[in-house]
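ok so I'm stuck.
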Amino acid sequence: MKKLKLLLAAVSLMVITSCGKDNDDILSTDAQVKELKLLLQDGNWKISNFVKNQEDLTAYYSDIVFSFENNNVLKAVSAGNEIPGTWRISNDTGNDVDSYFDVDFNLFFNDDSKLKELRNDYSVISANSEKINLEIGENPLGNTVSLSFSKN
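replied:
not stuck anymore, here's the structure
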């Protein structure tokens, strides 16, 4: 009976961990997360795609240049005005909101900022030196978001 309980516990653990992965996301090591951070800090970026709940909002953000700096400082410049924010990339361990084991890309802006709609916890779908694709499959509010930054 004891062996049966251990076997059931092991099988349950395998099922839970296998269901917690989203194969569309980048699964990454700490070294790869550091590499992605360096990639972001190398130059300026613009939003090349922003779709929220199937509504294309890209044009609203087309004039903004983003600079991802050291110490998670994010500078967004639009028409000569700087909009401060913060950014963070982390190797996610999953939680109730984002149960996937992937690389998370977090953007934070003040509530009164033009960029507050970008504030979120995204999954990194793909990244190279020219383009970074982010996504929220569906959050607890039912929102889906696709966000891409391209090198300026």
